[in-house]
């Protein structure tokens, strides 16, 4: 499936946040891209604000429209607060769990590791980034991939205690999803209620 491969800094500047990770350019140019970006002061409509929040969530987690809508529909059928359940489903994606475990420095890098069959779930290779990890499942690095420089560099000094819903085993280079995260434990600056309001109009 296609993925956004354009300039990431331009997208980060559009939202005014480093949604793809630390960005040196963003600290210098903290205004929207384009010829009139620095002077742009036009008021955004309510719909525009809601659409912007959905786009931010999609770019943050690397999900395209059809997958995002399917996740929202699944969240709508699941017991709980709709917006919070949507974020939990996004957090449970295999590429995101690999990123949260510190196995990869970014979600894009995590996606590559999954696609290249370097990641195992409960000991079996899974090469589907959108695979939904269930509580109790163990996500780890395939034995022959443990020496990969990108993985070693990402894990070096990574603080595994910052996500209480994950448990890391350093000796096995694997982590267990203990439970789906509470909203307060998800660090992303996403106003999920705006996304719920947007889809409720469609």
From TrEMBL:
<keyword id="KW-0689">Ribosomal protein</keyword>
<keyword id="KW-0687">Ribonucleoprotein</keyword>
<dbReference type="InterPro" id="IPR005709">
    <property type="entry name" value="Ribosomal_uS4_bac-type"/>
</dbReference>
<dbReference type="GO" id="GO:0019843">
    <property type="term" value="F:rRNA binding"/>
</dbReference>
<dbReference type="GO" id="GO:0042274">
    <property type="term" value="P:ribosomal small subunit biogenesis"/>
</dbReference>
<feature type="domain" description="RNA-binding S4">
    <location>
        <begin position="92"/>
        <end position="156"/>
    </location>
</feature>
<dbReference type="InterPro" id="IPR001912">
    <property type="entry name" value="Ribosomal_uS4_N"/>
</dbReference>
<dbReference type="Pfam" id="PF01479">
    <property type="entry name" value="S4"/>
</dbReference>
<comment type="function">
    <text>With S5 and S12 plays an important role in translational accuracy.</text>
</comment>
<dbReference type="InterPro" id="IPR002942">
    <property type="entry name" value="S4_RNA-bd"/>
</dbReference>
<keyword id="KW-0699">rRNA-binding</keyword>
<dbReference type="GO" id="GO:0006412">
    <property type="term" value="P:translation"/>
</dbReference>
<dbReference type="GO" id="GO:0015935">
    <property type="term" value="C:small ribosomal subunit"/>
</dbReference>
<protein>
    <recommendedName>
        <fullName>Small ribosomal subunit protein uS4</fullName>
    </recommendedName>
</protein>
<dbReference type="InterPro" id="IPR022801">
    <property type="entry name" value="Ribosomal_uS4"/>
</dbReference>
<dbReference type="Pfam" id="PF00163">
    <property type="entry name" value="Ribosomal_S4"/>
</dbReference>
<dbReference type="GO" id="GO:0003735">
    <property type="term" value="F:structural constituent of ribosome"/>
</dbReference>
<dbReference type="InterPro" id="IPR036986">
    <property type="entry name" value="S4_RNA-bd_sf"/>
</dbReference>
<dbReference type="InterPro" id="IPR018079">
    <property type="entry name" value="Ribosomal_uS4_CS"/>
</dbReference>
<comment type="subunit">
    <text>Part of the 30S ribosomal subunit. Contacts protein S5. The interaction surface between S4 and S5 is involved in control of translational fidelity.</text>
</comment>
<comment type="function">
    <text>One of the primary rRNA binding proteins, it binds directly to 16S rRNA where it nucleates assembly of the body of the 30S subunit.</text>
</comment>
<comment type="similarity">
    <text>Belongs to the universal ribosomal protein uS4 family.</text>
</comment>
<keyword id="KW-0694">RNA-binding</keyword>
<feature type="domain" description="Small ribosomal subunit protein uS4 N-terminal">
    <location>
        <begin position="3"/>
        <end position="91"/>
    </location>
</feature>
